[in-house]
TrEMBL record:
Coiled coil segments of this chain: none
Subunit composition and interactions: Heterodimer of an alpha and a beta subunit.
Keywords: Electron transport, Transport
Species, as recorded: Phaeovibrio sulfidiphilus
Protein name: Electron transfer flavoprotein subunit beta
Taxonomic lineage: Bacteria, Pseudomonadati, Pseudomonadota, Alphaproteobacteria, Rhodospirillales
Required co-factors: AMP
GO biological process: carboxylic acid catabolic process
Family that this chain belongs to: Belongs to the ETF beta-subunit/FixA family.
Length: 249
């Protein structure tokens, strides 16, 4: 069976995000970009299944500007066999991404569609769930473990109260949470080899999807700067302030 992994190019998690002066979005010019960390985990899981002989091919997919090719080359260096770039300058939102992923998953006849549980730029946590809806496939979200059991998957999900175990029929949509695995780094020889692996470019129109955004961001602002701390002389004053000023007790 084949696996597809959605990898998004996002602002690197170490970068301090700055809002554009006109409030139209966050500054991306000259900013370090990387693969979304949860997608690294999703990719690692798919590559491990390939190494175990459970999966025959891993296809990485990224959607956005042509620079997403860098993210795809990283995915190929980590172990994906081939890559598909859906190239567009449109402001992509989860609805369009999930539609396009579902079209590609059907076109490529994959059995497992892996995503990160959320992208660290929009924090939407919607794409996997909506892709499962479009495909009509079961979904295992927030995964902390995954085992293949014949025609089914046994997964553990991270939920508020602990862990939930599910048995899902294949094909399925799976989204990776932090504890699923520890992703590897791409080695230099594999980075070189990845340059020769196939990377196909398609457009949203080729997939029959209109990528136009349905939601409009009205404004974006930095959170207010934190006020400095104060020292209090004793516990009684601390308790009084927590009550009267912070209103936490
Ligand atoms: P979100 O629903 O936006 O939080 O994103 C959840 C997951 O969907 C991400 O971790 C990626 O696996 C996938 N995804 C979202 N946007 C894209 C994109 N533009 N290209 C590839 N994958 C994406």
């Amino acid at each position: 069976m084949k696996a597809m992994v959605a990898v998004k190019r996002v602002i690197d998690y170490n970068v301090k995000i700055r809002v554009r002066s006109d409030g139209s979005g966050v500054e991306t010019a000259g900013v370090k970009m990387s693969m979304n960390p949860f997608d690294e985990i999703a990719l690692e899981e798919a590559v491990r299944l390939k190494e175990a002989g459970t999966v025959s091919e891993v296809i990485a997919v990224s959607m956005g500007a042509s620079a997403c090719q860098e993210t795809l080359r990283t995915a190929l260096a980590v172990g994906a066999d081939r890559a598909i770039l859906v190239e567009t300058d449109a402001d992509l939102q989860p609805l369009a991404v999930s539609r396009m992923l579902s079209v590609l998953a059907k076109r490529e006849e994959v059995s497992l569609l892996f995503l990160g549980k959320q992208a660290i730029d929009d924090d939407a946590n919607q794409t996997g769930q909506m892709a499962a809806g479009f495909l009509g496939w079961p979904q295992g979200t927030f995964l902390s473990s995954l085992k293949v059991d014949g025609t089914h998957l046994v997964v553990e999900r991270e939920v508020d109260g602990g862990l939930e175990s599910l048995r899902l029929a294949i094909p399925a949509v799976l989204t990776a949470d932090l504890r699923l695995n520890e992703p590897r780094y791409a080695s230099l020889p594999n980075i070189m080899k990845a340059k020769k692996k196939p990377l196909e470019t398609v457009t949203p129109a080729d997939l029959g999807v209109d990528p136009a955004p349905r939601l409009k961001v009205l404004s974006l602002a930095e959170p207010p700067a934190r006020a400095g701390g104060i020292r209090v002389p004793d516990v009684a004053t601390l308790v009084a302030k927590l009550h009267s000023e912070a209103k936490v007790i």
